[in-house]
Amino acid sequence: MLILLSSLKLTAQNQDIKQSTRKFEEVYTYINHLYVDDVNNAKLTEAAIIATLEKLDPHSSYISKEEVDDANQMINGNFVGVGIRFQLLKDTLMVVGTVPGGPSEKIGIRAGDKIIKVNGITIANVKLKNSQVREKLMGELGSKVKVEILRKNEPELLSFNITRDKIPLNSVDCHYMITPTTGYIKLNSFSHSTTDEIKNSLKSLNEQGMKNLILDLQDNGGGVMQAAKNICDEFLSNDKLVVFSEGKHQPRQNMICDTKGQFEKGKLIVLVNENSASASEIVSGAIQDWDRGLIVGRRTYGKGLVQRPISLSDGSEMRLTIARYFTPSGRNIQKPYEANSEEYHKDFIKRLAHGELTSQDSIKFPDSLKFQTKIRKRTVYGGGGIMPDIFVPLDTNEFTPYFRKVLNTGIFNSYSLSYVDNNRTLLKNKFQSFDIFNKQFICDELFMNTFFNTIEKEQPEIKFNESEYKKNEALFKLFIKSLIAQNFWGTTEFYKIYNQRNDILNAALETIENNKKFDKFGIEK
What we know:
By secondary structure, the chain is α+β, with helices and mostly antiparallel strands. Helix content is 41%, strand content 21%.
């Protein structure tokens, strides 16, 4: 009887699919035979696929053939190119830095070089966009591109033939010792290269005497789930469940720690905010559920749906939701999405209006969403996202309208880059190390007057606002100094300066360096 009922149910489902497909084919046929104008069938089909997937859930999606490679680059952790970091400065492509060991560095291209021509075609002063620059410099593995470069103190353009190669896309922005005993790792995404990057970062920090670790997952939107599991394996002992998934057509699948990690002992804090999603939530949820570390920040985004990439016949791709992720204690990571997609994506605005981002008292959970951690039996909550152990409110008054206007012009970046380009020798001679620069470089009154004169010249519609500048004076100077450090040294140095204003990091640092504050949570260390 049970077999018969299952067979009848399957037959009904197949008939329903056939009827729906036939109906769509009928509409398609009538459009092609009766519509008043010519029809682009490819675009029509894509529009239908996109609309169909939007009706399922907020994260099932369609990726066109042209976008598939770009979409996979972040996941794969590399792309094929020439290996430079660049910025467009006054319509001229300036090399900010070269990738260590990359093709440009190997043939002698330097920071400060201006690329004037690519394959004989002038690209300076033609208002190129960043995407157009990438199109010209990226290409097939092993192919060559000729660039002509303007270099300071060189009377003529210098010519270089660069052989394109695989260039890593680093998911670890930086790692460094933030105190003599506490290490810090900033992770921007989860890709196939993340595991090795994290392992190398931990090895380096351990060699520098790390006793405590802060893992920064703020604004990390996720990525490869295997990388999330491997990161947890560095912190959790063997046989511990990291996450499990289930769906209507997908039986429960467990991801379990199975290797010895480099930091299974020691105080650990994970930083999150409202933009930490997916794999970030898997890591923070597992660390919290096993009482291995503290979560500091604000409730995470709440994306706990599993997407399977499915290649379509023309090279395009569908990423279809097939299951949900649950933390080891059984919490559903995915926030509700019964409302329409537009409302779902307005969640940040709703949280802000409700006060959740600025006041812990505004966050209320029903008893039905209570769960217990695996070791200490602490109360944690489900219902979408990971709620931190230590809440750090969002400072909604941090940026004045004047600061935002200046920030939106991009002049912070262009001015800092110009300053480094014009003062490269001076910086090298005066500040022989980053530590000396960090201690001694000051954005004094003369420096800031030059900055605001530049704004007045290039953006005359933005009038200087003295009262709002005074409110954000420290932030103006900190941001410019950090960008100068980034353009002259690199990303790590940017964070070493800019992290001074990172409220979530500062709260974590205060806790992890204070045994009394940390120990009150009963966390393993």
